[in-house]
């Protein structure tokens, strides 16, 4: 079911009168009635508040500028150790989300395929009664929760809900957890950070560290410092994104072959006998793994598997073995290929051979001290479990969606849509009607991020950081914090619950109280400390003194967070048990497509720094800016190596069709020599059919149904595609695209298609 | 009187585009429609372009350059303005009196850096952006040429603040939005005539270059070339 903006308005039905949707001078501004007098006759008084950006896993501290009661701009907080005053495009535009015309202003219930507004109590009772009914029939297993959040507080709340109610089918999509899950699988714990103090060689497997990563702004700064110290960075990937061009060497490899390359490098270490001998005891079954690598990953074979010349594999191996503290790095992005988790295991094995010297752990990290004993309630439930249930006989009775737009972010969307439309009850907590929540029977919209209280924990900078996300404005509309709903549900579904907190505020404050009692660290009132200050601190000198917890709380809100610059680090030296998972790490995959077939290419879908989970269309500035580097606006483009393009006689900026087994879609071709030959690289993020305006195409619609076997993530890189020129009068192009040319004054050729 | 200038270190710039977004939001620059965008009418006071690629194979690098008004000391744009809407201030900033602009676009044609943009249509922003307008900056009407002003509104605020506090303005008081948000501190801004300022010191850097200096425009925005490996 495709839903365009017009359908979206229809879908809203009678509630549309109360919702300002549209644009232009005639549109009603999306603010509460009560604030109108302030808007039109306010005193124009400026004020600032600090909060934390939740647009990505980074957790940058934001300085929000207010005119009267209205937040109008957000900048970086110069005193935050994470972003040190810098801020990315998403953080800058995050305020506009608050005023988005498509924000839902009250709970909605679907009646005759149209959403009608209802009160919160009505909505909550519908949800509660449904859950009581299903659970009453011992149907916990028929309930699924799909959540996407970067907040560990929220993750813990979902886990608590799951434990208390016995609903085991909880799928939480969290960048940090996803990145660390391969480590947790084989080592029971993951490293906290890349130790830039000791690390002298970074071998980056496909991570867009300064664009989309656990901490993009911190890595942006650190990688520059890292290179200025004379250290080297090698990037392994199919495309040299502009944001990762600050490196020393690029090894063009398709992501499916990462594991083979990592084991090829491991081969060199083992053959040269220059690995860390502690690995013999830290890796369970070391000798058999050594034999497996030596037998299967010799350079010539790795060349066949990966396309990387044997000499280059040897050179990489020598660089890695010579470095005193190398780090082979991967993050969540590695999972978007069918053998993603296996590739991650291979990279872990490579790190283990050098004793993980490039990584570190924080001694007595605050987060670990609070949540160490809290395990996930549903460790083995992945998106694959959900899909298998949808396809199987045991139907799902209830689906709860929070923060996730899994329909948009997946391949095989048509099947997924058909299957979820058979679920009898879907509740969504999305603040917008998006591709997933449009299937809901009930929507209880969540607050905007600027209306919520939360904490963001971070260890990736090598220090414990706790940033506070404070509600800088009162909720504009009749929305409810999803965390509060889950807490209420715990209380109502399990009367003898041990969960004592009444609200998210309560829960956050209880954790903050432990920070207060802890006494370590300091507020974010200073981002750098001199050696004298550190020395004084070691002998017990304390600058931060509070009369009470309330004083501490107020100071925390004033400065935006807490961190422990004096905390110590320790080495990361886990026991590794691959339990047979290392074999076949990529051996069955190769990128031979480009060498064996003339008209068959890899369709590589990449994420751009402006987009994180495909939600960019919420921000008009970002949509306009998306392809500006190529002067392609509001349309999909495909980046192709000129060698590949010329072999098909395709010109730069020409219109083309990309053809896959699922159909074909138009794109503007741009030459990019920093793309591996034989690849067609298209950006992810465009093509929303519900959220705001429609621009471009979602390439996942045309991707084959290939998924990582462990995590269930859709493959972004293994679809085989063809490329062909498109004639300008081809009807496949949207009317918009064709009209543009007609509208050009005097028929000049100034359009992007000229 | 200071002479404001800017130096962009291409070794530190990682093309994150935050400067572009910050500029757009700080200065209430219009977001144009899809149709206008396709006619090259996108309005950006600072742009990031991939000019070429250096090196081959594994050592290939995109050569990217953020471009904005270079605030010439001898600006070609002001020489052709028939109504003197654009002029150079004492502090070196090339400013524009919007109500005086008649939209002839001579200045755009005479700018060798092609960094000026024209308001082709009445400002009709998406609601969520209208609501976030920066109240310190006027919205330009249809038919007006505009460009980077080094966030001149921030200079005015900094002056007023320093005056209210009975002190001299410092370098930290006046920072354009692009400089403020840059995650890698790749953009330095300050008084070129102050020997102690970062921008002044960077003028002597062996990596420094400026665009089209041979035209005699004396640009006050310069770059530090990215270091080779």
Quick structural overview:
With 754 residues, chain A is of the alpha/beta class. Chain A contains 24 helices and 27 strands. Chain A is globular, with a radius of gyration of 26 Å.
Number of helices of chain A: 24
| Biggest sheet record of chain B | 4 strands, mixed
Spans of at least 5 consecutive residues with low confidence of chain B: none
Low-confidence stretches of chain A: 1-29, 586-596, 729-754
Q: Provide the helix percentage of chain A.
A: 25-40%
Number of continuous helical runs of chain B:
8
Spatial extent as radius of gyration of chain B: 18 Å
Question: Largest protein interface?
Answer: A-B, 79 and 53 residues
Q: How can the largest sheet of chain A be summarized?
A: 7 strands, mixed
Instruction: Give the radius of gyration of chain A.
Output: 26 Å
User: CA-to-CA gap between the ends of chain A?
Assistant: 35 Å
Spatial sequence of strands, sheet with the most strands of chain A: 5-4-16-15-14-6-7
The helix/strand class of chain B is alpha+beta
Which percent range describes the beta-strand content of chain B?
15-25%
Instruction: Sum up the overall morphology of chain A in one term.
Output: globular
What attributes characterize this protein structure?
heterodimer, A: 754 residues, alpha/beta, 24 helices, 27 strands, 18% strand, B: 229 residues, alpha+beta, 8 helices
